[in-house]
Amino acid sequence: MTSISKTNENGYTTPGFCALFIKRFGVNRLLRQVNATKEKGVSAYTLFAYLVGLVFSGKNLYTVLELCHEKIGFGKDTVYRFLNKSAAHWEKFILRLSCAVVPEVDKLTADDRKSVLIIDR
After folding, report:
1. Residue 59 and residue 56: Cα distance in Å, rounded?
2. pLDDT tens digits, one per residue of 85-118
3. Which listed residue, 34, 55, 91, 101, has the most CB atoms within 10 A of its CB?
4. Mean pLDDT (the chain, rounded)
5. What span, in angstroms and rounded, lies between the C-alpha atoms of 29 and 44?
6. How many structural domains is the chain composed of?
7. Could you tell me the pTM of the whole model?
8. What burial class does residue 38 get, using C-beta atoms within 10 Å of its C-beta: 0-12 exposed, 13-18 middle, 19+ buried?
């Protein structure tokens, strides 16, 4: 895993391994396919990359937005509207992303072992 960060157009950084994952599995294309887009302002890709980076950096959305609002360039309302967009098919997004990731993970499993995917809702 790399610790190199990628700086986005708004000045904040996404951890390098998150940026590599997002690029490798075509997350931007998947977001468009499931209608997780934005009409104006910060792009859906930028918001998604930021949120994934937060998860893996262990930071809290509210705290980061309060401390770095000017640097980030969007507020919590933008994030909430993006995540709650009724036209976005998030389950389809997760399914398509999983279909891309599972074969890569399966390569790491020895041939004599069974591969299992557990989905818990």
Report:
1. 8
2. 999 999 999 999 999 998 888 888 888 888 777 7
3. 34
4. 82
5. 11
6. 1
7. 0.73
8. middle
